[in-house]
Structures are given as structure tokens and as C-alpha cells.
Amino acid sequence: MNLKTEHFFENSKQWNEEFNLLREIVRENQSLEEDYKWMHPCYTYSGKNVVLIHGFKEYCALLFHKGALMQDPEQLLIQQTAHVQSARQLRFTSISQIIDLRDIIKKYITEAVEIEKSGKKIEMRKVADYPVPEEFKRALAEDNLLQTAFQSLTPGRQKGYLFYFNQAKQSKTRESRIEKYYQQILDGKGIDD
Question: What is the pLDDT of residue 124?
């Protein structure tokens, strides 16, 4: 028994009934082990994350870590944002919805476990797939120290910066973001470090 997981289910205010029913459904799959990660109940197969229970203001959900590989015959899986590459959610807004979908939920969980057992992997976007804004290209070309530091960052950190810089619609905003994170890049840190 994981005490943090138990506390999650005992102390959740919003979605408590829904969370407990989802837990019951997930635990029916004997292949999964219950764990606690990212402040939520996470169910794993051989140490690999398969499905997570979490809630938001408008809905609670099962998050399938390799949901992009699932068949989704009922067309229920939701990609949280366009930038989420792998995970997909089954969202619920009431206990009755979970009860009505119970058999389908179990099938989705079984499929997610089978995908993990198969060893299938999701081909994640590479750093080269992210556009480099002109302002950052110019900064890299003019500053060898910045270029070396940026290339030394992990691919995930590089993607984080490129994504953030590209979100700005105006050139002056991109330039101010680059200036703001200049020292952090030199220090070998990611955008959220």
C-alpha cells in the first residue's frame, strides 16, 4: 500500500467519487501496479507508466501515457494540447458517465497494457523538428558562447526554449524572451530550472 496514493483518494474533495470508481476499474487489471507520481495515482506495468488518474476544474480523467498508439474505436481519447505528443485522456464530468463507460474504459486499459507489454515506442519530435526563430538564429550566429551553451543543453531543454520563443507573435517579444533567458542558457539550465 502506498500511503501517498491512499491519502490522494481519501482527501480529494472534487471528483472523490469519480476518482474512487476509476481506481476500482483500473485495479481490476491485475497486470498493473499502483504507484504515486506527479502527485497523482499512476498505474505501471513492469515499472513503466501506463495510466494516471487526475482531475481538473471541469473534468477528471484517465491519462494514457502512450495513448497516441491506441486504436480508440469509440473516438473518446483527447489530446490535451497540440503539443502533447504521446499522452491521451479519457475525460469524465460525472460518476454516471464513468458507470456508463465502464466496459469501454476496461477495454482501453487492457489495450494500454498490451501496448506497454509489446514494447512499442512513440517517435518523439526531435529538436531539429522545431523551428528556430530568426531572432534566436541571429543571436546564436553573433554569440559563440550562447551557441555552444545552447548546443550543450539536453534535447528537452532545447525544445523547451524553442517552443517558448516561437510562441511569441511579435519579434520584439521573441527578442526580450531571448534576452531574459540568455544567462540561464549559459548556465546550462532549462526554461523551468
Answer: 79
